[in-house]
């Protein structure tokens, strides 16, 4: 990865401001030196078990033979990472085999009605993911799809088709897995959903899609070398926040990253957004949004800064008229938009990912998880809690008479 926190930001951040934040940034970075529970996702050696990885790869191969569609049911951190990587790696117009569908993020009966029609002649397997094992949206979707599965397959066959990813101690999902004897993967203790992309939460669906999970984990391990850049990025964000730049636009020029920006939104919003603090993350896809949000970014309320994700490589597509490859024209648009936004008062960070493959996506995931945790530490909030999302759950549980 490459990082540019200077070219399009230097008018906003001078040496004196950096001095103000440098000491705190150095001290929060030191937290990563200690192998504590809450940073387990960073100290990867402890929980990534080689045997389990091999088994996931093996199961992935087996499901290729028996399954057309893997239904992955989960919400929040229990789906966003896997979906982000899946969309970034799969071809635009061809399905993977098996195809992966992510469910449980809506409660639309229309959606499920259409899904049943789509699945009619397909061989289906299911991976239900919930760390707590109790999340309402996940459990309702599980129940509905389980009824469909029970009508289609024998109890013996279901054991080959249903996979549960949850915590090792408790919850309705664990109870169900034990009762029916389903293969279970465990989310390590102390790793919250949005930091779980390096665990079976994302690794198992990736393995089933045929992606190289070992390379993804290698990339993540190597990504730890960017801790210093992650801390500079966290510091730059914090400086913008203190200067009333309350919104961070994660801007992409490669549509395959659309779900990746959803993962970033979840990662940063749930890590930082508490105690009336935090930057609001949004996603911007250019050139499309240059003709909509671009106007606001240039001349609207100056509450924004951008973090642009650039994918360096890409297929050759030469345009004789411009004597240039389309990839380079896309990069040129990116550069010129950053320049224009700088002129109009909106600063941009540019983060370059060399290629859209497992290794570089693993590296990017580690970088952004480090940056989200560091950013939260810098504004004195706990990155690993999300008390704000509990209230609606409690209100709803009372109505639905479940807890
Ligand atoms: O990041 C988080 O911790 C949350 O977004 C959770 O992943 C989300 O609420 C789903 O929780 P669970 O995995 O318990 O179903």
Structure in words:
The chain is an alpha/beta fold and 403 residues long. The protein contains 15 helices and 12 strands. The strands form 3 sheets. A 5-stranded mixed β-sheet has the order 1-12-9-7-8, with helices on both faces. The model has no long low-confidence stretch (mean pLDDT 95). It binds 5-phosphoarabinonic acid. Residues 75-78, 130-132, 135, 138, 192-194, 270, 386 line the site of 5-phosphoarabinonic acid.
Residues in helices, as a percent range: 40-55%
Bound molecules: 5-phosphoarabinonic acid
Order of helices and strands: EHHEHEHEHHEHEHHHEHEHEEEHEHH
User: Mind describing the biggest β-sheet?
Assistant: 5 strands, mixed
Say what oligomer this is: single chain
- Shape descriptor: globular
Distance between the termini: 44 Å
Total beta strands: 12
**Alpha plus pi helix count:** 15
Radius of gyration: 22 Å
Structural class: alpha/beta
Sheet-strand content, in percent, reads: 5-15%
Mean pLDDT: 95
Q: What strand order characterises the main sheet?
A: 1-12-9-7-8
> Poorly predicted ranges (pLDDT <50, ≥5 residues)?
none
What key attributes describe this structure?
403 residues, alpha/beta, five-stranded mixed beta sheet, five-stranded parallel beta sheet, 49% helix, globular, binds 5-phosphoarabinonic acid
Task: Indicate the topology.
Layout: E1 2-4, H1 15-30, H2 50-66, E2 69-73, H3 80-89, E3 99-103, H4 109-119, E4 124-129, H5 136-152, H6 155-161, E5 162-166, H7 172-180, E6 183-186, H8 200-209, H9 213-223, H10 227-242, E7 247-252, H11 258-272, E8 280-285, H12 293-299, E9 304-311, E10 318-319, E11 324-325, H13 326-344, E12 348-353, H14 358-378, H15 390-400
Parallel strand pairs: 2-3, 2-4, 4-5, 5-6, 7-8, 7-9, 9-12
Antiparallel strand pairs: 1-12, 10-11
Helix pairs in contact: 1-10, 2-8, 3-8, 3-11, 9-14, 10-14, 11-14
5-phosphoarabinonic acid (PA5) binds at residues 75-78, 130-132, 135, 138, 192-194, 270, 386.
């Amino acid at each position: 990865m490459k990082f540019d926190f200077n070219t399009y930001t230097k008018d906003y951040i001078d040496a004196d401001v950096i001095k103000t934040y440098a000491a705190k940034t150095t001290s929060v970075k030191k937290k990563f030196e200690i192998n504590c529970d809450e940073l387990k996702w960073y100290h990867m050696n402890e929980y990534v078990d080689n045997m389990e990885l091999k088994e996931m790869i093996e199961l992935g191969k087996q499901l290729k033979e028996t399954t057309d569609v893997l239904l992955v049911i989960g919400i929040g951190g229990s789906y966003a990472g896997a979906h982000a990587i899946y969309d970034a790696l799969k071809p635009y117009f061809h399905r993977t085999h098996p195809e992966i569908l992510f469910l449980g993020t809506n409660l639309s009966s229309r959606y499920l009605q259409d899904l049943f029609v789509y699945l009619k002649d397909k061989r289906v397997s299911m991976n239900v993911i919930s760390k707590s094992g109790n999340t309402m949206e996940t459990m309702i979707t599980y129940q509905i799809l389980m009824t469909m599965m029970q009508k289609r397959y024998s109890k013996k066959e279901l054991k080959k088709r249903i996979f549960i990813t949850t915590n090792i101690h408790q919850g309705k999902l664990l109870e169900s897995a034990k009762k029916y004897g389903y293969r279970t993967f465990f989310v390590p203790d102390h790793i919250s959903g949005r930091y779980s992309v390096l665990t079976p939460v994302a690794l198992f669906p990736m393995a089933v899609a045929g992606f190289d999970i070992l390379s993804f984990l290698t990339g993540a391990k190597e990504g730890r070398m960017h801790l210093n850049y992650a801390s500079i990025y966290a510091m730059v964000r914090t400086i913008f926040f203190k200067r009333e730049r309350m919104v961070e636009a994660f801007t992409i020029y490669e549509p395959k990253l659309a779900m990746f920006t959803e993962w970033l939104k979840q990662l940063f919003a749930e890590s930082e957004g508490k105690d009336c603090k935090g930057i609001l993350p949004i996603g911007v896809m250019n050139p499309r949004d240059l003709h909509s949000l671009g106007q606001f970014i240039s001349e609207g309320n100056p509450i924004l800064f951008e973090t642009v994700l650039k994918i360096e490589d890409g297929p050759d597509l030469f345009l004789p008229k411009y004597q240039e490859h389309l990839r380079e024209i896309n990069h040129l648009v990116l550069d010129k938009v950053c320049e224009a936004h700088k002129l109009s008062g909106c600063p941009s960070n540019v983060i370059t990912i060399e290629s859209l493959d497992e290794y570089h996506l693993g590296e990017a995931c580690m970088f952004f998880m480090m940056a989200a945790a560091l950013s939260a530490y810098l504004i004195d909030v706990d990155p690993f809690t999300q008390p704000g999302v509990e209230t609606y759950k409690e209100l709803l549980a009372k109505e639905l008479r479940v807890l």
